């Protein structure tokens, strides 16, 4: 919560007279836990948040959800990292796929999984959506260009869900869009990979913005084009959520994916708890939330978690 390393956190707690294990013991315990087990262990903690949100009727009605990939740059190679487009001086990343509710007043990360093979992205998308269905009624799934793949489209439609994603504007798609525009049709039917096993047919619509023409693929016919563009724009709120998560994530130079996954899932849990506290009418900032939780851990505050934020700041 203070963005310290595990080693530094242990030192602080020992200095406060707390009986805590050594950094090596902490790291080795996490290293010995596989990715699937880490996800399984964090799931009941996250579900405690979701049950409370349900009690407050925050999860009622159809929800817009977004599936997204979060990549953390890594300098070097290590088991569990994936290649990506060059950014910040590297092409190697620790990657996670998450599913978030992206509506004002209800912005929870419902689940997150490690992404160690981008060829298996469709399997992770299906797992995330099946899990989300346990907690919310999915109205539409929003995805970026990474997911512009026929296997992912078929999986989402196989679950009976509608989707909208940014389309990759190939030459053939641009030509069809140009012809449709001449005919006054901003939305047209498009077939990806025609006459191949990976063929997929869907609607494409275009929206003119200040920075040019934007192409969107969808399972729905885009009659209300500006509305669907605004709906898609809502998925960008995920970026703000990742900034909050970074504030809750410990630093580490460890090359073990299980340690990295543990710290990422912990940041997801803390962000969801903060979101729940804020939506309960308390309106606490992420910085105040983090500060008071740290003080509670260090024994500086003698109160329960639910009463932590009912006092005036100070």
Description:
This protein is 42% helix and 23% strand. The chain is an alpha+beta fold and 314 residues long. It has a single domain (33-283), classed as Transposase Inhibitor Protein From Tn5, Chain A, domain 1, CATH 3.90.350. The longest helix has 26 residues, at 257-282. The two termini are 19 Å apart. The model is unreliable at 310-314 (pLDDT under 50).
Question: How would the blueprint of this fold be written?
Answer:
Elements lengths: L5 H10 L7 H9 L3 H21 L6 E13 L7 E6 L2 E12 L7 E6 L6 H12 L4 E7 L6 H9 L4 E4 L4 H12 L4 E6 L7 E10 L2 E7 L6 H9 L3 H11 L9 H26 L3 H12 L17
Parallel strand pairs: 1-5, 5-6
Antiparallel strand pairs: 1-3, 2-3, 3-4, 6-9, 7-8, 8-9
Question: Which key features would you list for this structure?
Answer:
10 helices; globular; Transposase Inhibitor Protein From Tn5, Chain A, domain 1; alpha+beta; 314 residues; nine-stranded mixed beta sheet
In short:
With 314 residues, the chain is α+β, with helices and mostly antiparallel strands.
Uncertain stretches = 310-314
The rough form would be described as: globular
Instruction: Kindly identify the CATH topology.
Output: Transposase Inhibitor Protein From Tn5, Chain A, domain 1
The main β sheet shows up as:
9 strands, mixed
Number of strands: 9
Query: Kindly, what is the distance between the CA atoms of the first and last residues, rounded to a whole number of angstroms?
Result: 19 Å
Query: Number of helical segments?
Result: 10
CATH-derived architecture: Alpha-Beta Complex
